[in-house]
Amino acid sequence: MKKKVLITGGSGGIAQAVKKLLEADGYDVFAPTRSEMDVTDWESVESVVAKFVPDILINNAGYVVPRSVKEMDLVNTKKHFDINVGGVFYCTGIALKYNPELQIVNIGSAAAVESHATWSEYCASKAAVVMATKCWAEDGLYAVVISPGRTRTKMRKSLFPDEDQTTLLEPDDFARVVMKAVRKEYEPGTHIIVRKQNVQQLINS
Questions:
Q1: pTM across the whole model
Q2: Cβ(149)–Cβ(114) under 8 Å?
Q3: pLDDT tens digit sequence for 100-127
Q4: Alpha helices in the chain (DSSP H)
Q5: What is residue 10's DSSP assignment?
Q6: Kind and range of the H or E element at 107?
Q7: Using CA atoms, how far apart are residues 41 and 57, in angstroms rounded to an integer?
Q8: Bridge partners of residue 140, in order along the sequence
Q9: Cβ contact 111:126 at 8 Å
Q10: Residue 36 to residues 22, 30, 50, Cα–Cα distance (Å)
Q11: Pair 160, 167: CB distance under 8 Å
Q12: DSSP 9
C-alpha cells in the first residue's frame, strides 16, 4: 500500500517540488492550498486529516512579512505565530489523533538560527519550530526539521525582487534533502540547514 503524505501550504514552490519527487517515488500525496485547508483553523485541518489520514506530515505552510518591532502591526505579528507555530502544532496534534505512528517533517528556515533586524517574528516563530521538533523527538516521535536558506521561491521574489537568482537554492534540490528525511535517513530531532553551498553535499551524503 502506498504511504500517504500530507504537505501543508501546498501551493508554494517548495511544496510542489517535494510533491513531484514524492509522487515519482510512489507516494500518495495531498498538498492542499490554503482554501482547501487553513492550518490556523482546527475544523479545517480536521476535515482534511479525517479523510486523508497521513502516514507522513510535512508542515510546510509559512508566512513572512518583515517589519520592525518599533512599528509593530499586531495583526501581522499574530499571523506569523498563528501560521508558523500554531499551524505546525494544530496539524501535528490532529494528525497524531488519527495516526499515532505519524512521521513528521517540519520545514523550518535558516532564519531560526540567524538574526535579521526586521524579521523578528519570523525568526522567533521558526526557532520555535526547531525546539518543538526536538521536544517531539524526545517524546518518542519521528520528527525532524529541514530548514532552507535563501531559496528561489515566489515568496522570496516578492520580498527581494532585484536579488540575483543564481545565488539562491533551487526548490528541486531542497526537495531532495526533504526526501532523505521522509525516508528516515536522519535521527529524530535533527535540524538540517540547507543552503545552495551545501545542498549537493547533503544530497550525496
A1: 0.94
A2: no
A3: 999 999 999 998 999 999 999 999 999 9
A4: 13-24, 42-51, 74-81, 87-98, 120-138, 154-159, 171-182, 199-204
A5: T
A6: strand 103-107
A7: 17
A8: none
A9: yes
A10: 20, 11, 14
A11: no
A12: S
